[in-house]
Amino acid sequence: MSATVRFQRILGIRFVVGTAQQVIDLVSESGGLVVVPSGPGLRNLATDSVYREALLGADLAIADSGLMVLLWNILYRPKISKLSGLKYLRTLLLQSDFRLPGSTLWVLPNQDNAERTVRWLREQGSGVSYADVYVAPLYNGCIQDPALLQLIERRRPGHVVLGIGGGVQEPLGFYLKQRLSYLPRIHCIGAAIGFLTGDQVRIPAWADHIGLGWLLRCVSNPTRFVPRYWRARHLVPLIFRYSDRLPIIGP
Q: How far apart are CA 35 and CA 168, in angstroms?
């Protein structure tokens, strides 16, 4: 397995190039932080030092951004393949140890999302319960959570799933990695679970495979998602200028 996995550094971040199962196998060996940075998030590498530190401190980064993959494959070699956070999550949900009671702790943004997620997971045969869900507070710029830290230490799950959105979940995952007395598998999946539960627009496997998830989101809620994906255009000059190098931090 390891012989077919390679890594490609883009904007200073070490991305793993492989299948979802290979990424899961890698993080299962000794635990660690898996991040799935989006295009709108990656544009902040030159301005957001907290987000930047979290990506650099992750153990594995997945190339989920279709814009980043497209630009890289046009401009540079060797080429890389896109691996979406949704495909990663679908594969993660099939792992036998992930489905066991008490094996996971889900960190979600609100109570409605938590209840819908638990119901959906139970319908899929998972052993998850409401005790396996933590509703995150609003962090307001200070991304630290001693209560979550204590909960994880007490329950000691093998998997911690962060589904609270890009830009926040990565620093929170890095915070947990630095302070926990053991290293679980920490998965930053963002909105991916919402695509399955119906909390967000459902993205069929075929649409995810050809990279149209962003378009379905924009159609479903243009006011929210069109400005967000439009901001990702700032990733283009970063890729042109820095290639595999970490962008210089600026204002």
A: 11
